[in-house]
Write a structure and sequence with these properties.
Elements: H1 2-6, E1 38-49, E2 52-54, E3 57-60, E4 65-68, E5 71-72, E6 83-90, E7 96-103, E8 107-115, E9 118-121, E10 124-127, E11 133-134, E12 151-158, E13 164-171, E14 177-187, E15 192-195, E16 198-201, E17 206-208, E18 219-226, E19 232-239, E20 250-262, E21 265-268, E22 271-274, E23 280-282, E24 294-301, E25 307-314, E26 320-331, E27 342-346, E28 349-352, E29 358-361, E30 380-388, E31 391-399, E32 409-419, E33 423-426, E34 429-432, E35 438-440, H2 449-455, E36 460-468, E37 471-480
Parallel strand pairs: 1-20, 3-7, 4-7, 10-13, 11-13, 16-19, 17-19, 22-25, 23-25, 28-31, 29-31, 35-37
Antiparallel strand pairs: 1-2, 1-6, 2-3, 4-5, 6-7, 8-9, 8-12, 8-14, 9-10, 12-13, 14-15, 14-18, 15-16, 18-19, 20-21, 20-24, 21-22, 24-25, 26-27, 26-30, 26-32, 27-28, 30-31, 32-33, 32-36, 33-34, 36-37
Length: 491
């Protein structure tokens, strides 16, 4: 599959939207008075399969045209964590059908630097968090499995400063290089422009721009090769469309605000957005709509071709993480729209799932159509998510191979919500300590137990320890003050 993905074709897909997230997908939008299925467009992260689940909506993909870098592909070539553009329809009962699914990587290239939670490829910063999926071929999985000189393929969200928030990272096998971003500093005399942090020469390149001329602000994907002077010699420059076709009536997008004029005039990854007095805001308010903020938007296409936002949801901070074994699973009675939700316990910690929870099977069998119902008591999993009024909400669940975790060793990350003289609470779970527990401050320097318990309340911590039934004994606790674990706006 990786060889197929990195054998880039002669044309790139035209992405209609910028990336999309999903506040659950249970609401049906874009249904007109006739009750007929309405053409819709979404671009977002693949959460799972059976058929294809994107942004919390399950799309029947049996007859969908699937393109990867403009080449015909199959559903099995798509992966969880890919940012895809999808054109289809949603019926009155909420059932959805995909007509076309397209995937284009944000970047293919060689790692030149690695620092904390950031990779650098061709000058581009690639930000990694707990929700980033690392392909099973990267061992050990995570940043520790990548080194400078490694060639990777990255899918994710493009921010206003040109950095990429990665949703999936894979190994790349060939020498092709690729970048996606907004054209700036165009010099038509020298035939160069800047793309994020990389200078591009388009002399001799095939320009596939549709009915547009090359200009500053145009969203493009380029392919070619970086020379010894770090100049990227493009062989092909392809425009990524940021407008909606005439038949599209509803849409949803997730991404960073890349231009802000006012609350009624801004862009998300180059897509024109407007609001009105009926627009709803989740996890924030209207005055939080600012340049560089990540949002999830659902709405209707107005007469001017803009996306009129019905709902804007601000990003939840992914602060919680637990790696352990499943001790209980409860499945909900679902709506019949094909997405399984429910509750699971990991070493006794209760975790809720929703329509947008992302699933990846990295176990021995690696089930493609993997979801909550595929899990069994005793499975080793890693779960990431955020705290809400309803508890720990899972954004990603990965099943691991049996030998990924030591029999008793566990890892937790979260916000301390209560504290006593020798224990504290993470997402409702009591964490005990003893005289052998090691404590570290935000700079990873040793501190005493007294100092830790004096300053730790409300802090985000990373914990390693031992699970003894439903009890947890911490062997090491580190304070992480870079992320206090609160949602972006709601405190």
């Amino acid at each position: 599959m990786i060889r197929f993905l990195t054998n880039l074709g002669t044309s790139l897909c035209l992405i209609l939207l910028a990336s999309c997230g999903g506040s659950g997908g249970s609401d049906v939008s874009g249904i007109d008075g006739s009750g007929a299925p309405v053409a819709t467009s979404t671009h977002g992260t693949i959460d799972g399969f059976g058929s294809v689940i994107v942004n919390g909506v399950r799309y029947n993909s049996d007859k969908a045209q699937i393109l990867i870098n403009g080449e015909m592909a199959m559903e099995e070539n798509l992966q969880v964590g890919y940012q895809v553009s999808l054109i289809g329809s949603i019926a009155k009962d909420g059932s959805a059908t995909a007509d076309k699914i397209e995937f284009t990587p944000n970047l293919v290239g060689t790692i030149s630097a690695k620092n904390n939670n950031t990779l650098v490829v061709m000058g581009q910063s690639i930000k990694v968090n707990n929700d980033t999926i690392f392909d099973v071929r990267i061992t050990p999985r995570g940043l520790q499995g990548l080194t400078t000189g490694t060639r990777i393929l990255v899918s994710g969200s493009l921010s206003a400063d040109g950095s990429i928030s990665a949703t999936r990272i894979e190994l790349a096998n060939n020498s092709s290089q690729q970048l996606l971003g907004f054209v700036r500093d165009l010099n038509s005399m020298n035939m160069t422009f800047q793309l994020n942090q990389q200078q591009i020469s388009y002399a001799g390149a095939n320009l596939n721009l549709g009915n547009q001329n090359l200009r500053n602000g145009l969203l493009v994907s380029v392919r070619g090769m970086q020379d010894n002077n770090q100049l990227f010699q493009a062989t092909q420059v392809n425009r990524i469309a940021t407008e909606f076709s005439n038949n599209i009536k509803s849409a949803s997008i997730e991404g960073y605000i890349t231009r802000f004029g006012s609350i009624t005039d801004f862009e998300v990854s180059g897509i024109n957005i407007t609001t009105n007095t009926q627009t709803r805001y989740d996890n924030g308010e209207a005055n939080n709509v600012l340049l560089g903020v990540k949002v999830e938007i659902e709405g209707q296409i107005d007469s001017s071709g803009k996306l009129l936002a019905e709902e804007i949801e601000f990003e939840h901070k992914i602060n919680n993480k637990i790696a352990g074994k499943i001790t209980n699973i409860t499945l909900n009675n679902n709506s019949g729209l094909g997405i399984v939700t429910g509750t699971l316990e990991v070493d006794g910690a209760s975790i809720r799932t929703n329509n947008s929870t992302r699933y990846e099977d990295k176990g021995n069998n690696r089930i493609k159509r993997f979801n909550l119902s595929s899990l069994q008591i005793g499975d080793s999993v890693e779960v990431t998510g955020y705290s809400s009024d309803n508890g720990f909400i899972a954004t990603k669940i990965e099943r691991e191979t049996a030998d990924d975790n030591e029999p008793e060793e566990r890892e937790l990350e979260g916000i301390i919500t209560s504290i006593s003289s020798d224990s504290f609470t993470l997402f409702g779970r009591k964490i005990s300590t003893d005289e052998n527990t090691q404590y570290r401050d935000a700079e990873e320097k040793p501190i005493s137990a007294v100092n830790f318990f004096t300053i730790a309340f409300g802090k985000r911590v990373e914990v390693k320890g031992i699970a003894l039934g439903n009890d947890f004994l911490a062997t090491r606790v580190s304070i992480d003050e870079d992320d206090k674990g609160k949602n972006q706006f709601k405190l």
